[in-house]
Write a structure and sequence with these properties.
- The chain is α+β, with helices and mostly antiparallel strands.
- Helix content is 19%, strand content 27%.
- It is built from nine helices and 24 strands.
- The strands form four sheets. Strands 9, 10, 11, 12, 13, 15, 17, 18, 19, 20, 21, 22, 23 and 24 form a 14-stranded mixed beta sheet that branches. Strands 3, 4, 6, 7 and 8 form a five-stranded antiparallel beta sheet that branches. A three-stranded antiparallel beta sheet has the order 1-2-5.
- A hairpin with a 3-residue loop joins strand 21 and strand 22.
- Helix 1 packs parallel to helix 6.
- The protein is globular, with a radius of gyration of 23 Å.
- The relative contact order is 0.12.
């Protein structure tokens, strides 16, 4: 008798997630039945994926690595087998480790792909540290990190970078090498760290595995490929990162419990479990972000003294499905439905409460998809993309009204996803250029997704003509750096002329200025 559809779905569910739910939950809780390999000997370097640090606090930081002597092993194991391995870590005040501040040992287990997430405390606020790992006789590369300032500190300056959308098959990660040389306090990655599709491209960087990712081993191999890139490793080793996912870490345009096609079901749930597990395994995240089944706590707040608060939001796990069948739509009434949500009720309240209670000069919202209105059609007809905040227009109005009503000043949104750069005023009513300006949004381009890019394109011309709140537009690849003081904010759009071949130079395409206490863009210089 043939298996029923439900039986087939269950079999595929278990295959995608790499085992039963109880085993998976136990692994995430930190338990391992694997024997311990106390004195491992490696035939190949186990630190092929580099090192990273993340989520800096005034007194601590997360240190990350993953043991993977064969990061592209077909079973997703990284070539590590089924034994638990003790990994030592050190963090020091100097790059030669003459003055070691803290050290310890973490067990790297096969259940978590032999990844290491060492949450280090007891550090001094606002200072530089260097860190490294040891497994057996093997030493990792040295990474550099920096703790956040003390809670009541009044920093004179904060400099951070942010990036998104790094498609391995579309282009080289040269921009990451330049980012590593920027000497920033923090890097914010806004999503699309990997792309899930079976993209071959035409530059010799075809995706591995050579299929769209569905299973845990698929996603582990894909992260192994991306994190083997030396330029990406350099950017991770240079500064602490704050990360949040968008859609391509799982599936294009997914929304809560449905896939990009709006279907969902048990197979997508299994895919989401596998993808979130692999994401955690490869990111410098705290245990608070360890996924539980298909759910992962990613929205969180990081403070930089009295200068800036970073409110990292999650625009995927709690949203309603895209309106009107997704895509670009004209006259989609559902996007105006006040019952629709982008953040979910709990996260939206958390965000507004945090913004209104902040004592920092700059209130930053680290956001995945652009918030500004973007009319895509020339003339009186308006067309909007349903995956962005335009597809959740009532939720956007509710959020911006909440910012205004609470008297939140110096509200700045940083955004990725769109593969183009835009600096725009956030308006109480985008259809009325004379309405109140609530804040500023800085959308930064992709790091490599979309290929070489250009200074301008046809859509950019339409956007600037139809959306007067947009003050700058560019379609080159790169990232953005932001310099904050108590008086001003400057965003520098750092771009490379090409990504389809390596070693591109980097330049500043434009600098956009905001004055503290004066909502909106004050000046664009290029």
């Amino acid at each position: 008798m043939p298996a029923s559809p439900s039986t087939l779905d269950r079999r595929r569910f278990l295959a995608l997630t790499g085992g039963g739910v109880l085993t998976f939950t136990a692994a995430l809780a930190g338990f391992s039945a694997a024997p311990v390999r106390a004195n491992p000997v490696f035939r190949e370097n186990p630190f092929t994926l580099g090192v990273a640090s993340g989520d800096p606090l005034p007194d601590g930081v997360v240190l990350w690595t993953r043991l993977a002597p064969d990061p592209l092993a077909a079973d997703g194991s990284g070539g590590m087998g089924d034994r638990t391995v003790p990994v030592q870590w050190q963090i020091a005040r100097d790059p030669r480790f003459r003055d070691v501040e803290r050290e310890g040992t973490v067990r790297a287990t096969p259940e978590l792909a032999h990844s290491v997430h060492a949450e280090v405390g007891g550090l001094e606020p606002g200072r530089d540290y260097w860190y490294r790992f040891r497994a057996g006789r093997e030493l990792s590369p040295v990474g550099h990190t920096r703790t956040a300032p003390a809670a009541g500190a009044r920093p004179e300056q904060l400099r951070f970078a942010y990036a998104s959308c790094q498609n391995y098959a579309d282009g080289y990660f040269t921009a990451h090498r330049h980012l590593a040389e920027e000497d920033v306090d923090l890097v914010v990655h806004l999503g699309d760290y990997i792309y899930e599709g079976a993209n071959v491209g035409s530059i010799g960087r075809a995706h591995l595995p050579a299929v769209e990712c569905f299973s845990l081993s698929d996603y582990r191999i894909r992260y192994g490929q991306y994190k083997s890139d030396p330029d990406l490793q350099a950017a991770h080793a240079a500064a602490p990162w704050v990360v949040v996912l968008d859609d391509h870490e799982i599936d294009n345009n997914w929304a809560d419990d449905v896939d990009g096609g709006g279907v969902g079901g048990e197979v997508f749930r299994a895919r989401r479990i596998a993808a979130l597990k692999a994401y955690y395994e490869h990111m410098p995240l705290r245990r608070a972000s360890m996924p539980v089944g298909p759910d992962m706590q990613l929205y969180r707040r990081l403070r930089y003294g009295t200068l800036a608060d970073f409110n990292v939001v999650d625009t995927r796990q709690y949203r309603d499905d895209q309106a009107c069948g997704d895509g670009r739509q004209i006259d989609c009434a559902d996007r105006l439905d006040p019952a629709r949500t982008m953040l979910g009720d709990t996260q939206e309240a958390w965000l507004l409460d945090g913004l209104s209670g902040s004592r920092a000069t700059w209130k930053v919202m680290a956001n995945q998809i652009f918030m500004m209105q973007a009319d895509h059609e020339a003339g009186p007809v308006q067309a909007f993309g349903m995956d962005t905040w335009d597809g959740y227009a009532a939720a956007r109005t509710r959020l911006l009204d909440g910012v205004r009503e609470r008297g939140v000043d110096n509200f700045v949104v940083i955004t990725g996803d769109a593969h183009r750069s835009v600096a725009a005023d956030l308006k109480a009513n985008f259809d009325d250029p004379g309405s109140a300006t609530v804040g500023t949004e800085f959308l930064a381009t992709s790091l490599s997704a979309g290929g070489d890019g250009a200074d301008q394109d046809a859509l950019g011309g339409v956007w600037l003509a139809e959306n007067p709140h947009m003050k700058f537009h560019n379609v080159q690849r790169g990232y953005a750096t932001c310099t904050l003081t108590p008086d001003a904010w400057r965003t520098d759009y750092r771009v490379v002329p090409y990504v389809r071949r390596p070693d591109a130079p980097v330049t500043t395409r434009a600098s956009v200025h905001v004055q503290a206490g004066v909502p909106g863009i004050a000046q664009v210089s290029s």
